UniProtKB/TrEMBL annotation:
Superkingdom of origin: Eukaryota
InterPro entries noted in UniProt: Atg1-like, Prot_kinase_dom, Ser/Thr_kinase_AS
Gene Ontology CC annotations of this record: cytoplasm
Domain spans labelled Protein kinase: 15-269
Protein name listed in UniProt: Protein kinase domain-containing protein
Organism listed in the record: Paramecium octaurelia
Gene Ontology biological process terms in this record: regulation of autophagy
A GO molecular function held by the record: protein serine/threonine kinase activity
């Protein structure tokens, strides 16, 4: 495998910034153009937005993880600045999964094709002991060929540990599993919970609950937590088929062991997915509508 290295300051000085692609919790993501005799190249530069130690830790962690993983559905890291505050990433020109549900939720077959790709990447990571830690719609990008790429590895772990351990709870509210509030959760199972939240949002257009932080007493989460599924399905009044309902009951379980693994969920999505042709047609249609 090609070695990913720290790039000298001269590399960054020659780049021409085109626009801002995103502004997240940790960083600003910029579109940058490299002009070379052999042809121009676009990159996404993810750079520290504010000089806060926690954000520097996340970027350092992201570099350490991305150096070790390479997969068709994981964003490619080309290099990084010598002080570890800027990542040079493959540019994905079609935004994130958020763009696909702007006008309406997705049919189950389309959402399954998308999550088939996500769970392929996740199975690859989990098999090697890596976990993502912050799976959500805005951390799944669409590349130039309309393939999905996982991004944002600031909270990723290897064998349960980050490159530098922090005290703060990782992940994004509304996507994290309930056991994240307890010590030493199984991070593979917390990733699987987040995948189910993503699937729920894609096929309904809204989240399954607002928060499972015990301090927030979210009424939707209370129904899920207490296994009051009949009331839950009645109250949300969304058309979800029985097979999907059964999947959500299993994946949102407060018992992490009941949740399917990335490999098993990948098989589930494989059976439900549409053809590659349909998928690309639907993605193009939805991006054009924006
Ligand atoms: N390689 C890329 N190509 C195109 N756009 C990107 C790329 N990487 C990130 N973005 C855009 O920038 C946004 C923020 O990136 P990222 O999630 O990596 O940063 P973050 O600061 O860790 O985010 P947050 O804390 O909000 O999750 C993404 O949601 C996406 O819109
Ligand atoms: Mg993000």
């Amino acid at each position: 495998m090609q070695q990913i290295q720290a790039l000298p300051p001269q590399f960054f000085q020659t780049l021409k910034i085109q626009t801002i692609l995103g502004q997240g919790h940790d960083a600003k993501v910029l579109l940058a153009l490299e002009t070379k005799d052999s042809g121009n190249q676009l990159y996404a530069l993810k750079c520290q937005a504010q000089k806060i130690q926690d954000t520097a830790i996340n970027l350092f962690n992201e570099i350490q993880i991305l150096i070790h993983i390479k997969h068709p559905h994981i964003i490619e890291l080309f290099g990084y600045s010598q002080d570890y505050t800027c990542l040079v990433l493959q540019y994905c020109p079609h935004g994130t999964l958020i763009q696909l549900i702007k006008s309406s939720p997705l049919p189950v077959s389309i959402a399954s094709s998308l999550l088939y790709q996500v769970t392929l990447a996740l199975n690859y990571m989990h098999e090697q002991g890596f976990t993502h830690g912050d799976l959500k719609l805005s951390n799944i990008l669409i590349d130039s060929q309309y393939n999905l790429k996982l991004c944002d590895f600031g909270f990723a772990r290897w064998n349960g540990k980050m490159a530098i351990e922090k005290q703060t709870i990782a992940g994004s509210e509304g996507y994290t599993a309930p056991e994240i509030w307890k010590p030493n959760p199984n991070y593979m199972k917390t990733d699987m919970f987040s995948v189910a939240v993503i699937f729920f949002i894609l096929i309904t257009g809204h989240p399954p609950f607002e928060s499972n932080n015990p301090d927030n007493h979210d009424p939707w989460w209370n129904l899920i937590k207490n296994n009051e599924w009949d009331t839950y399905w009645k109250d949300i009044r969304t058309n979800i088929d029985q097979e999907c309902k059964n999947l959500f009951v299993q994946m949102f379980s407060t018992q992490p062991d009941e949740r399917l693994s990335a490999n098993h969920l990948n098989q589930w999505f494989k059976l439900k997915q549409t053809t590659q042709e349909n998928l690309i047609q639907e993605i193009k249609k939805r991006l054009a509508e924006m």
